[in-house]
């Protein structure tokens, strides 16, 4: 964990000394002959953008994108100049129908959300090129479950957006008396019509933030 993770460090620095994290690093080092996404040095980008103090919304993804140039360390986000993936296109469709300010920016870079305290967290932080779930079950899930647990235990009035069956399983780590859990189908084209479209999670998030005297998220994205 060599990246600067700012005020997350006091909460997460002990993780690197645990057996599971050593095993994870050994696995990653054993895959040096494979192309790993996102690039080394950006694995913890979500923590750089959204400090522990600032985090008020968590959008949980599963795996980083496994296509060339897509993954950048933020769940669902891709760099400008990369085609917007199907799930993110559906997120934009829902935003467009929700009661929030949003105009499709023509790119998929979600840095603006992250800098407002939206933790764009994948459950697994690395993947091999063109090989989805290739780094699942090697320790990342233990680490990111600990992130969720730390947020649950040490903060109040967070909003957790859990989309799809995998993300929804994480609700057992969250105290619904302290935080708001918003669950829906995954925005993938295979499931968005099963309850993601029409969920209005973005306006519901802002309503909750307003009720708990927190600054609202500006969901619009700059060009």
Query: What is the share of helical residues?
Result: 25-40%
Total beta strands = 6
Widest β-sheet, arrangement of strands = 3-2-5-6
> What is the string of helix and strand elements?
HHEHEHHEEHEHEH
Tag the structure with descriptive keywords.
about 220 residues, alpha/beta, four-stranded parallel beta sheet, two-stranded antiparallel sheet, 6 strands, about 30% helix
Describe the structure.
- The chain is an alpha/beta fold.
- It contains 8 helices and 6 strands, in the order H-H-E-H-E-H-H-E-E-H-E-H-E-H.
- It has helices spanning 9-12, 19-30, 45-49, 86-97, 111-114, 140-154, 165-168, 201-211; strands at residues 36-37, 57-61, 118-122, 127-128, 159-163, 180-184.
- The strands form 2 sheets. Strands 3-2-5-6 form a 4-stranded parallel sheet.
- Strand 5, helix 7 and strand 6 form a beta-alpha-beta unit.
- The radius of gyration is 17 Å and the shape is globular.
């Amino acid at each position: 964990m060599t990246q600067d993770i700012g005020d997350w460090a006091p909460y997460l620095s002990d993780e690197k000394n645990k057996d599971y994290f050593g095993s994870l690093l050994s696995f990653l080092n054993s895959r040096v002959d494979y192309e790993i996404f996102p690039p080394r040095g950006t694995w913890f980008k979500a923590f750089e953008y959204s400090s522990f103090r600032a985090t008020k919304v968590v959008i949980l993804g599963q795996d980083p994108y496994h296509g060339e140039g897509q993954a950048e360390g933020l769940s669902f986000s891709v760099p400008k100049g990369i085609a917007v993936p199907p799930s993110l296109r559906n997120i934009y469709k829902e935003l467009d129908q929700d009661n929030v300010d949003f105009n499709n920016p023509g790119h998929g870079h979600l840095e603006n959300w992250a800098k407002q305290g939206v933790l764009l967290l994948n459950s697994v932080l690395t993947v091999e090129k063109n090989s989805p779930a290739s780094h699942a079950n090697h320790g990342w899930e233990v680490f990111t479950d600990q992130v969720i647990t730390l947020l649950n235990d040490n903060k109040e009035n967070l909003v957790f957006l859990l989309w799809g069956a995998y993300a929804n399983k994480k609700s057992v780590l969250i105290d619904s008396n302290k935080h708001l859990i918003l669950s829906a189908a995954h925005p993938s084209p295979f499931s968005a019509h099963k309850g993601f479209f029409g969920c209005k999670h973005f306006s519901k998030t802002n309503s909750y933030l307003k009720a708990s005297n927190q600054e609202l998220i500006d969901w619009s994205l700059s060009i």
